[in-house]
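To the wet lab folks,

You asked to see what we're planning to order before we commit. Fair enough. Below is the target structure as tokens, and below that is the sequence we designed to fit it. If anything looks off to you, flag it before the synthesis order goes out.
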């Protein structure tokens, strides 16, 4: 039996790597190659998750009916994954996008994250047409974690682009960006603090968001929706909406009067 203390680390590390790599890919061929890495991550997660996979199945089934134990398992993975995400700071972003304004950099970040989410959804959609999916729940969980990783990375880098990073050490900044993902707001706009302890309002909201996102991942794999195209579209749209919502908050703080 896998050690429950090591399960989140292995799965979270792989999800963080894939999320960062596919986001920073420069062309479609790279994104396709990294989408294949997502499939590998799902297979690895299926082998490593053990009890976690069964919990993910329960959480997916509970999507739309409130947070279940599976959503709690996903929340633990997100908490372990977030500090491992590769986040470019303001200096790195300016070096990568020389001469561009904060608005231009934000455009590029949102576009890149949306394309990354589309690649993740497309990869999952391909799995849906295979004749047998013995690890289907783990694959849905893996896609969900990578998508959330892409979006948390986007939120963190948007804050950097506008010169308003979350304060504190790595753990404090990470918690703030996870909270921003759950609230769909800029860090400074989050109500009620960023306490992720079990039973806190933020922890409950995070579980609800994750259950809903996993439910959408599973729904996008339905044959009626033709798999890859539907998964790519739904994921890209959701990521772009999130990026624009956070961006609006950051504009108000960093660019008064805009």
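Sequence we intend to order:
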């Amino acid at each position: 039996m896998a050690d429950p203390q090591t399960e989140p680390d292995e799965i979270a590390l792989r999800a963080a790597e894939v999320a960062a790599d596919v986001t920073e890919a420069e062309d479609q061929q790279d994104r396709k190659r990294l989408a294949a890495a997502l499939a590998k991550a799902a297979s690895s997660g299926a082998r490593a998750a053990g009890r976690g996979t069964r919990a993910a199945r329960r959480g997916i089934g509970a999507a739309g009916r409130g947070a279940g134990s599976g959503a709690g398992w996903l929340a633990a993975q997100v908490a372990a994954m977030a500090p491992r995400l590769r986040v470019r700071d303001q200096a790195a972003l300016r070096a990568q996008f020389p001469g561009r304004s904060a608005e231009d950099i934000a455009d590029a970040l949102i576009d890149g994250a949306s394309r990354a989410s589309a690649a993740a959804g497309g990869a999952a959609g391909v799995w849906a047409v295979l004749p047998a999916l013995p690890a289907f729940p783990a694959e849905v969980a893996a896609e969900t974690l990578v998508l959330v990783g892409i979006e948390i990375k986007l939120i963190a880098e948007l804050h950097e682009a506008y010169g308003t990073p979350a304060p504190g050490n790595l753990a404090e900044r990470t918690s703030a960006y996870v909270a921003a993902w759950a609230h769909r707001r800029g860090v400074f706009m989050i109500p009620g603090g960023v306490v992720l302890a079990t039973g806190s309002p933020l922890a409950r909201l995070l579980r609800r968001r994750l259950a809903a996102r996993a439910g959408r991942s599973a729904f996008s794999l339905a044959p009626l929706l033709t798999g890859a195209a539907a998964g790519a579209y739904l994921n890209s749209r959701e990521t772009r909406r999130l990026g624009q919502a956070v961006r609006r908050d950051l504009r108000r703080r960093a660019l008064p009067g805009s």
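Structural context that might help your review: The chain has one domain: 7-254. Residues 46 and 134 are 9 Å apart (CA to CA).

Thanks,
Computational group
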